[in-house]
Amino acid sequence: MAGKKSGGFNEKGIEGLAKDKPIVYDIEDRNGKTLYTGVAKKGRVEARLKEHLQGGPDPVRGGSKVRIQQKTSIADAEKAEARRIKKLQPPQNKRGK
User: Fold this and answer.
1) CATH at residue 42
2) pTM of the model
3) Residue pLDDT, tens place only, 50-87
4) Is the dihedral of CA 22, 40, 38, 67 positive or negative?
5) DSSP readout, the chain?
6) Residue 34: alpha-carbon gap to chain centroid
7) Does any domain span residue 41?
8) Count of domains forming the chain
């Protein structure tokens, strides 16, 4: 069964997401505004997203939902991430601004 493309920004929501390919992801607030955009390698999707939860090493404040887009390679994910950061200017991204 394929994983979901979006879920709540919490442990349960993250665990249900697709994780069989590299991803680019957006963490959004409850109004749908992107707070943070990032990438995760295949096999690290769940672990990387959980790092952003409160109490994690790289928390994203105010996140309510996470939306992912699967890519065929990590290079494709990184290119998509750079485009999204440039376009959306997420307030909690430090790189790419």
Assistant:
1) 3.40.1440.10
2) 0.93
3) 999 999 999 999 999 999 999 999 999 999 999 999 99
4) positive
5) -PPBSEEESSHHHHHTB--SS-EEEEEE-TTS-EEEEEEE-TT-HHHHHHHTSTTSSS--TT--EEEEEE-SSHHHHHHHHHHHHHHH--TT--TT-
6) 10
7) yes
8) 1
